[in-house]
């Protein structure tokens, strides 16, 4: 199955991505997904494609391969520094390379460098994911696009070439099919986002799109819980050890849940421009349902936010009928008309809103989560003493950010598309807010004779536990395969006794067939947050796991590459999400690409003479690499070597980099101490131009806050290759610079 794409960007550049095919297999709570991206270079020069794309937050990449001209290559996982070195060296050597990196949780970037003119390439990567039951449904989630985000990408430490691009002309379509095995093969299914078809054959369900579908919304497939389902477990061998995956759904059958206690609930609602359309419509319905769920002894406040925030009440108030009516009247007129997405200030206002000291305080957040300053918001939330219960709304929600925000505060998250009934999810979320806490969870694995194999507490990152939600846990141990597993937990559910009681659940554990080491890799990935950074890198390389510190890399050696220039960048744009900012609607399955927009007018540039700047004739005697500096930089403004070269050498400028001497980089703003060291090395007998090239090649190591651009760094690599700068010389310069930095620091 495939969907051909023949697109151009707004600038007229041919987009290299031609097809996206997705296949998956779901066995219980475990899915395995394969994504194939087909590229073709229809230009007359070599190109580099860069595609930043989303994956589920708990996706674990398991393989990467490429097929070019019938040659199949497998990727391997290396530490980022090694992977980047291999990739960049391939670029300047004229070889073809693929690097798949994790930018942040849920956000990845795939680079295909030096796809030659007329060549085609198929890139295939796979990932595995553990899903969770929430109430009576399991949600299979596949993100396909990234919505524009509020703020600046620099807040997320994303490289310039990795920043997601968008365009109304990017009318991508994809195909999708999934095979559902085991207990879920006969269950009810529903997609609130896409038109699907399915059939069952030999106790296996096959589900697919009704033809190619736009990549302008996340795909959601909901599966109903089979009658009597209590969980599942699998084991597999890893050498002499056993790895077990257990999946429980904590329930409360032995005792009735006590009446909910009063809470102070602060409701924070995104009314920014990105919520225009389906999202704000659903949020309006949901908020009225939220208010209806409040009890008379609850306290509440509602904060609406965009570029600014507005509090419905000056402080949290008691949920009297009069206050409920005030909230109803204002919520009926709710619109997404408050501008940007300043979620941080709105949350701070909620934290500072009055809270009765005797009541537990929780925060309900409704948003699409499209912001760049995620880390700061999460850190503030973790220190706020407010549990965050988040509802993500829209067709392309920032699932990773909102999930992390909830878990960092011991809360929970849920996600709703415009075609779903949000009030049902709200009621479910309110049950979580008012639930009695489950504490001290313990996991016991037993063999077929019911003899305990291990009995351990669940790791801290598996908390909190909520009744009706899934608990997935991995256990590695020496011994026989497990036949059953028990999860024990405590809770104060009996109001008459006013003390905690222990409850439990039991599941059967069976062997996972055709495992091929998958459970061991998933278990290793689950451990990464519990170890040091250096140990995490070792585990990732051993089990071939992509993390924030490791990447997939593969290189194909090409022949006759001496005549190749650096590749032209071909960024793969995303389609704008349907229903966001009023573009199309998910409710009618229309995409934003169905809309036609026109732009008029051209930029107006003032003359250089009007500002007393030098004209072209003034620059004739100035070397090319200094002309741009003189044109745009006032003499009194201090500049750095990086800013000078980054401004002068850009991907749009075909000019190559010629050799520099020490005087050149001194004139371009290099530090005096560096200049002095280079002169000392020249006096010791080293070639001046090679010395400067060697220093430029390691410049970023010593200047991480203001480095050379990606393009300049590549030009420097080419310069070092042309001048035959040796690794020994580079190391000598590095040692001298390191000694100087240490001396300066002391």
UniProtKB/TrEMBL annotation:
Chain ranges of the VWFA domain: 264-433
- The secretion signal range is none
A Pfam match is VIT
Checking InterPro entries in the record gives: VIT (IPR013694), VWF_A (IPR002035), vWFA_dom_sf (IPR036465)
Q: Which residues form the VIT domain?
A: 1-129
User: Which protein is depicted?
Assistant: VIT domain-containing protein
């Amino acid at each position: 199955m495939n969907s051909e794409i023949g697109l151009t960007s707004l600038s007229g550049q041919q987009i290299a991505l031609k097809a996206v095919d997705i296949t998956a297999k779901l066995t219980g709570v475990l899915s395995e997904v394969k994504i194939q991206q087909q590229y073709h270079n229809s230009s007359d020069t070599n190109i580099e494609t860069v595609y930043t794309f989303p994956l589920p937050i708990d996706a674990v990449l398991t393989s990467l391969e490429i097929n070019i001209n019938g040659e199949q290559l497998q990727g391997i996982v290396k530490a980022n520094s090694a992977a980047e070195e291999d990739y960049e060296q391939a670029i300047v050597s004229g070889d073809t390379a693929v690097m798949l990196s994790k930018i942040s949780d849920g956000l990845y970037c795939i680079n295909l460098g030096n796809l030659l003119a007329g060549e085609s390439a198929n890139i295939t990567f796979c990932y595995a994911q553990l899903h969770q039951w929430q109430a009576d449904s399991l949600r299979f989630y596949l993100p396909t696009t990234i919505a524009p985000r509020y703020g600046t990408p620099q807040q997320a430490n994303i490289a310039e070439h990795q920043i997601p691009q968008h365009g109304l002309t990017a009318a991508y379509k994809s195909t999708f099919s999934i095979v559902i095995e085991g207990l879920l093969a006969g269950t009810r299914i529903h997609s609130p986002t896409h038109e699907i078809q399915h059939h069952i054959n030999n106790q296996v369900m096959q589900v697919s799109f009704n033809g190619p579908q736009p990549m302008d919304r996340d795909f959601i497939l909901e599966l109903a819980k089979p009658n009597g389902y209590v969980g599942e477990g699998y084991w597999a061998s890893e050498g002499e050890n056993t790895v077990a995956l257990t999946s429980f759904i904590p329930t409360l059958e032995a005792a009735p849940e006590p009446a909910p206690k009063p809470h102070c609930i602060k409701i924070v609602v995104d009314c920014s421009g990105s919520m225009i359309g389906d999202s704000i419509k659903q949020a309006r319905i949901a908020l009225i349902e939220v208010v209806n769920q409040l009890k008379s002894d609850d306290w509440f406040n509602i904060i609406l936010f965009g570029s600014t925030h507005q509090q419905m009440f000056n402080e949290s108030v008691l949920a009297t009928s009069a206050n409920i009516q005030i909230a109803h009247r204002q919520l009926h007129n709710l619109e997404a008309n408050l501008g940007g997405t300043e979620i941080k200030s709105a949350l701070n206002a909620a934290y500072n809103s009055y809270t009765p000291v005797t009541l537990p305080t929780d925060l309900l957040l409704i948003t699409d989560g499209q912001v760049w300053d995620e880390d700061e918001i999460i850190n503030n939330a973790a220190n706020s003493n407010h549990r965050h219960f988040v509802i993500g709304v829209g067709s392309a929600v920032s699932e990773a950010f909102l999930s992390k925000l909830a878990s960092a505060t011991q809360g929970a998250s849920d996600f709703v598309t415009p075609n779903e009934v949000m009030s049902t999810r709200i009621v479910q979320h309110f049950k979580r807010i008012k639930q009695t806490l489950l504490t001290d969870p313990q996991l016991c694995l037993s063999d077929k004779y019911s003899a305990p194999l291990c009995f351990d507490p669940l790791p801290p990152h598996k908390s909190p536990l909520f009744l009706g939600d899934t608990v997935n846990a991995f256990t590695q141990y020496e011994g026989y395969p497990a036949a059953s597993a028990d999860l024990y937990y405590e809770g104060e559910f009996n109001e008459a006794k006013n003390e905690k009681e222990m409850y439990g659940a039991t599941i059967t554990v069976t062997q996972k067939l055709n495992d091929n080491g998958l459970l061991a890799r998933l278990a290793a990935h689950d451990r990464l947050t519990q170890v040091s950074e250096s140990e995490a890198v070792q585990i990732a390389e051993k089990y071939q796991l992509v993390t924030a510190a490791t990447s997939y890399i593969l290189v194909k050696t090409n022949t006759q590459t001496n005549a190749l220039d650096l590749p032209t960048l071909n960024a793969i744009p995303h389609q704008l999400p349907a229903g966001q900012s009023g573009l199309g609607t998910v409710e009618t399955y229309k995409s934003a690409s169905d809309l036609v927009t026109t732009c008029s007018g051209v930029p107006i540039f003032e003359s250089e003479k009007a500002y007393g700047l030098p004209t072209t004739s003034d620059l004739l005697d100035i070397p090319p690499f200094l002309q741009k500096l003189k044109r745009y930089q006032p003499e009194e403004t201090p500049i750095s070597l990086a800013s000078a070269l980054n401004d002068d050498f850009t991907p749009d400028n075909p000019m190559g980099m010629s050799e520099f001497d020490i005087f050149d980089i001194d004139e371009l703003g290099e530090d005096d101490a560096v200049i002095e060291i280079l002169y000392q090395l020249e006096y010791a007998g080293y070639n001046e131009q090679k010395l400067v090239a060697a220093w430029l090649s390691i410049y970023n190591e010593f200047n991480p806050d203001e480095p050379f651009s990606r393009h300049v760094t590549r030009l420097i690599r080419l310069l070092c290759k042309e001048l035959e700068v040796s690794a020994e010389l580079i190391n000598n310069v590095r040692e001298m610079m390191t000694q100087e930095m240490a001396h300066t620091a002391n």
